[in-house]
Specification:
Length: about 170
């Protein structure tokens, strides 16, 4: 399996990955397209096996309504893997590579709204322990990972994802 940066020609196969990974729902694929159309993807990677895209992960900027010092935060969302490739390490490989590329891009911390049991193995912790809330009202499932020591020390408040995450209803 190869993991490489997303390109514009990947848009349709990536949309299909997210539709299939999320039981036919289009929300995630529309978010990915809109974030890319706005040129706001910080890191966007595809997993390719036998010349077929089998997974995708996106990291995009988030804002914090509160003191955030000089920290740069991104949100991990969505990550999708074709159902017939799930539980084979594709998602984990995308997360690990994505976190490394975020660090290389100068990102200080990453937030994610997802399964705590899954994301804890990558070093994510409950974000509320760092004084971070979110616009969805989630607690245990909203997690943060520092990519450099002390990155979350001076950050607190409500994290908001890009507008593309709120624009999916009805369009």
């Amino acid at each position: 399996m190869e993991i490489r940066p997303y390109t514009r020609s990947d848009a349709d196969p990536v949309s299909e990955v997210h539709r299939r990974a999320f039981d036919g729902r289009d929300d995630e694929s529309r978010i990915v397209r809109r974030v890319h159309d706005a040129d706001e993807a910080v890191v966007s990677l595809v997993a390719v096996e036998n010349d077929r895209i089998v997974g995708h992960i996106l990291f995009s900027p988030v804002s914090v309504d509160g003191p955030n010092g000089t920290a740069t935060l991104v949100g991990l969302a969505p990550v999708g893997v074709l159902p017939d490739h799930q539980n084979r390490g594709v998602g984990s490989s995308l997360v690990e590579r994505g976190l490394a590329e975020c660090r290389d891009a100068g990102v200080d911390a990453v937030v994610v709204l997802g399964d705590p049991g899954y994301y804890a193995r990558f070093g994510f912790e409950r974000a509320s322990e760092h004084g971070l809330g979110n616009e969805y009202g989630a607690d245990e499932a909203f997690m943060a990972k520092s990519l450099r020591e002390g990155a979350l020390d001076d950050v607190s408040g409500t994290v908001a994802y890009r507008p593309e995450f709120r624009e999916i209803d009805g369009s």
